[in-house]
Model the fold of this input.
Amino acid sequence: MTVGNIALFSSPSASCRSPALDLTRSADSGLIVAEDIAIPNLQPIAVTPKSAARDPQSAARNPQRAIHNPQSVRPLLKWAGGKRQLLPAFRRFYPREFGAYFEPFVGSGAVFFDLLSAHALDGRRVSLTDSNRDLVGCYRMVRDNPSDVVEALERLAVGHAAGGERHYYQVRDGFNALRDAMPSRALAYTPALAAMFIYLNRTGFNGLFRLNGDGRFNVPAGRYARPRIFDPEHVFAISRVLARRGVSIGVAAFDRVVKKAQPGDFLYFDPPYAPISQTARFTAYTAEPFTLDDHQHLCDVAAVLAARGCHVMVSNSSAPAIATLYESNPKVAAAGLRVYRLPARRAINSHGEARGEITELLLTNLGPRH
Done:
């Protein structure tokens, strides 16, 4: 099959100490806020899987080995707001015991893969969802047709080596043409389209997925000397993970989990971040932006789930509107949710010098372990 000029295939060390938390109470809301948690070289957290009793090599007995297991699988995609840099901090909050796991804004799935590598998801039901139909379509093709995806990726890698940026824009045009021809993109995704999605993610600016007002992918080419486009072992590893018994991935609005989550389940929400400045306006992972009203609704959903007895983690930017939202919502305090501030690095900016350390928020009913 050919689109334009692109030929496609059809088919830590023991001396580390956790810092003390400076907990202060908001006079207005009663919400406990942990200010500016430092995170130097934190050790991994042991998370007890259901199979721990029968497996002497489990994560519960060997947390260092589990988190840094050479057999662990890294995420397939780069993703705006990906949480790999915050995983050492997040591990302090993971519940030791939980039922099913839900990740409604799966993106690159950094927390999912982290828990998986710790064997914390062994024997548990896992629900991965996202409103981005292209993302879900790509994951499903990798799960169901990895050989065909790998074959198409190899062809794209060869084209990139020969054509570079020119090849990128040809693939981008072909990607948009194929998407335009599909009435139901997630269900109609093909191995060729999934390979193009991965290729554009690996070679586009900062790994962004951005749609314009017409719903067309418009991310410019990135500047990478040797992007790793063709990695068949990685694709097959991701396929095996997504095909595991009990793991599902689909298109769904984040609030659908309210109907499914039960007391004791663990839910991690990583929504499109609210901009922290007037010039930081990237919220369009899909054709529809994630608005402040959506953040309000998510905050209410987190409160409902926490009050139900679920383990909840919500990460977000430290934008004033979000901090106010979390601290002024009486449902948040009533549900036992707290706000923690975590240091991070800004990764998305057209000017490299504008990237740097920032603070992100973690809203959760789970307490940090030392």
Notes: Residues 146-163 form the longest helix (18 residues). Residues 2-70, 279-284, 348-354 have pLDDT under 50 and may be disordered.
